[in-house]
Records
---
Amino acid sequence: MITKKQIIQWLDEFANVLATNKEYLTELDSAIGDADHGINMNRGFSKVKEKLLTVEDKDIGTILKTISMTLISSVGGASGPLYGTFFLKASTVTANKEDLNSKDLGDLFQIGLDGVKQRGKANLDDKTMIDALEPAIIRYKEKISEGESLIDAMKEAVTAAENGMKNTIPLVARKGRASYLGERSIGHQDPGATSTYLMLKSLLKVLEN
């Protein structure tokens, strides 16, 4: 079971991880994008960190919806709308919930992924955040259906996200600013896939603690 306190801790941990990795993400983005992914994500999640203090007594759906609105209004580039959409969709399946079971978490991930794909018109192997997110969710749901514990399933999901992130290196970018580079985007790790991996890794850390 995941409590709403853990959801808040997850978002807080992710904000801290983004602050630590701001330069790294921006460096990745400077190779194939606008060199602002780390800066934008850090700005948005700094605002999220402030907002978390105001939603501690709310249900999980309200928490995630508040986070989504904060990101959409404060993050520039593509990452604001995409991460904002992820959390907005996630809020619809967690409305009025005070805690989540392993199936609820799978539903949260799945509807979030569907929203991101719809918003960004991207699929697997387009060299985007989808390349980390989709394999992670597939692996998570497989492991839960096999009777694995939530934490063990999340460990598998994080490994799948990491592999997906690394698998973006040889790909040609087909979406976003990176797609303008064509073949020159080969050899670079996608920053969105990297921040997605960090997001899932942050959740695992909180659950393990």
Note: The chain has one domain: 2-208.
---
Amino acid sequence: MIDPLTPIERRVYHFLLDYLATHTYQPSVREIARRFRIRSTKTVAEIIQSLAKKGFVERPDGRSRGVRLIGYSTIGRSQPIPLYASVNSVEPSLSDANRLRYITMDRALLPSDEAFFLQAPDDSMQSMGILTNDLLLVDPTARSSDGDIAAARVGSSMVVRIIDHRGATISLSLPRSVDGEAVGERVLGPQDDFAILGVVRGVLRAALRDGSGDEEGVPERSAEIVSD
């Protein structure tokens, strides 16, 4: 089993990823040392060597910028996906004002080009594997079927519920009780102020870490696919 990255190894690895995406070439050992206030370039070289042993990078000998990120996917095979933390009380339900950031994903993992992420607002769907602040991958183009998990705007609130269609109305409810009855059910019709944002196709668990993150405006985290 490969040893996990240490906090400084993780920060250097993320720096290498971000630097390459911005500059199209890798930083030198001295630039890494300056970025993390490491006095010795030998220490930086040892960190990079450890990253290589753990399978994250390769580094040909004798090259200052020779680090190669193993498995790095160029923008040609990936797509930035917007992440929204809230919804608007009027249409459009989603806008730039409530967009937190973009998360780049391999296109092979996306249900559609229009997909977006929402932050789960609470633990009400915990029994379905969804916790507060989980990142929900939502497909707005999918036609929802009875029993699907859907993201919806109800008034000014965002909710994640199980959807059922009943003629001109829909039911949004929590997972059913042991006797099969709908829990927390809300039936919505043409007279109600709501919008179905899309069908939830995946969940990313955002795990807080012990180090201080470099990402602007968000805590350091690791993403783990927990359901789809």
Note: The chain has a mean pLDDT of 84.
---
Amino acid sequence: MTAEAIAESIRRVQPVDRLRVTEIFVSLQGEAAQVGWPTVFVRLTGCPLRCRWCDTEYSFSGGQSRSMAEVVTTVAASGVRHVCVTGGEPLAQPGCLPLLRECCDRGLKVSLETSGALGLGGIDPRVTIVMDLKAPGSGEVARNRLENITMLKPGDQIKCVLANRDDFDWALALINSNPPPHGVDVLFSPVHGELPPRILAEWILEARAPVRFQMQLHKVLWGDVPGR
């Protein structure tokens, strides 16, 4: 079953005015251009992908059904300006797009972390999209929708999490053959505990790759503690 088909099955059972939420918490943003900012994270439940190195498998099922108003009120009361809607795969829920819009309307700086396996249509233009392209080592490379690259706007980002040299070569070739729009940064990061960060940094420098190296700040600080 395709990612779109799985997501559609989720949409059929989830009302647009409610969200199934795994957790809402405040931490430092650990990745992308917003790294280091105190951020309230809304982790939605459910994902049609099964990446080999996924570190949020606890969000695949369960969660709590909450009204849109309750979620937005909780986010607005967090005391921080930055909000990140993540998952799982947040776009699998029909309430994700209204949630993003409502948070923007509250004057918050909103980012969305998505796998890139689902279409990006309908996302409020005020939202910063961080799209994760799946390398072969993830086991989900076939899920990538490369047409999503052309839908990104300045300030959005593409993230590639890499496990080995084959992943690095694949990602570099993909970016070279599918250059993102002007103003879209490409971020390469190592699989935590699998690819030594220094090795990836050396590959980037040797290749003069037009990408930004990044590590997951939250894991440097707190390891694999959920909700951090």
Note: Residues 28 and 38 are 4 Å apart (CA to CA).
---
Amino acid sequence: MQLLVFTLVFVGPGYSDARASGDTSPPAFASLFGGPFDLIDQDGQPKSDKDFRGKFMLIYFGYVNCPALCPGNLQQMAAALEELGVEGKKIQPIFISIDEARDTPAKVKKFVAEFGPEFIGLTGGSDKVRAAAKAFKVMRRKVVLPDQASKDDYLVHHATFTYLVGREGRFLTFFPNNTDGKEMARRIRKYL
């Protein structure tokens, strides 16, 4: 049996500048993820990260036609908010579509409504979605299966982290795919 080990290295902005000056320490973990975004909400209204200042953001990047991962992770987000009870009101759950070609505001609205009225769905033009995904280091790749009847019938492989962002818009932590809602709530409480 052969064991393969993969190491994932994140390099944030300013890292090459620090190395040029002789500082070989890696950048602070929290500086590697997150940043501004400027998108459109499920009602067609412009929304940016600044609109959520004063609240924590629980952000998941995915797409409406996702067969299992996205719905499962959004269900865990909803379970975490329920577990938090009144404290959950301090958190804005956000779904950001990475499939801007198919995920119109109307489709995103219908999708996020399945997880609770407090959920907000965001989408936008390809440049803006790409910028938001890049800020959070979300890999995404369109996959067209050979037996698909239409070019619009495809999957999107993507990173499946759920991100917790603080009241001032700074990244705090992330949760891996399918983190149990109770565990997510337990970890979120440390930041509230």
Note: The longest helix spans residues 69-84.
